[in-house]
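Submission checklist for the structure archive. All mandatory fields must be present; incomplete records are returned to the submitter.

[x] Identifier: F-box domain-containing protein
[x] Organism: Zizania palustris
[x] Residue count: 297
[x] Sequence attached
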Amino acid sequence: MASPPVQPWVDLPHDLLAAIMSRLGTPDLLSGGATRTCSAWRAAARNPLVWRRVDLRDWPALTSVGLAAGAGAAGGRIPVQVALCRVLEIAATRADGRMESLLLPEFADEEHLLFLAERCPNLHYFSLPATCMTDNQFCKAISKFQSLKGMAVDESLINHDVLVHVHQCCPMFLELKVFALYVDEEMASIICNSLPHLRKLEIPNSDMSCAAIITFLDCLEELEYLDISGYETSSISSTVLRKASRLKIFIWSSKFELGEFMDCSNCGEHSINPQQPCKCAMEHRVMDWLAGPSQSS
């Protein structure tokens, strides 16, 4: 029985090749993964659809010889800031105005954001974890992103003036992610008052007060998605759970899984560590101690 004919990879339809390429990481597309293949695969790697979503968060060094060659440099190690500029130039060129989402590495700064504003004004979402950026430069870039729907930024940019500017310049803005160590009621109020139409809010790995969570739930009437997972101390109360029941998605589990919480049968308070009982239990122990030893003992 004759074996079925083998189809060469080069004969894959271009749209299927482009779909495959879109699943490759940006480093692979730029530093050898696609350039070492046949002309059909290299052409697919340059399809604008492949560059709609660019993720550079885990870029290792941005100083490899492969990157330098891909960016048209002579080779050798180059500063990370310069390397990232070259990567963004390549990505913007290949996306041909169709880039929708870009996730930047931690060392990205306002220069890179301003470049994106000039080259990719139709961007829908960006992530910029940089902690040092002036409000003026950030707002200058935001003014050009009129199609922006969401962003992920450091808590240093969470202030009234910046967020109101976002609200005024980006009428379709619905999604916010904040990299913050601590969120109190004041910061929550700033977010709610400046961006009242938020539908998706993510503040993971942050120590957050119960008052802040309730502020989000009470004031953001259009909110559908809230992610406050990863915090180290629980602020989840029965009131929070009741108010959050209107959301489509509420993610609050942390390293303390739901099953590990101990509930006091008297006051309902959560105790993350069973060795540290709630206030109610402590008061009972103090009263027992003051009463002295039991008559029956």
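[x] Structure attached
Curator remark: The CA atoms of residues 204 and 255 lie 12 Å apart. Residues 61-75, 255-265, 270-275 have pLDDT under 50 and may be disordered.
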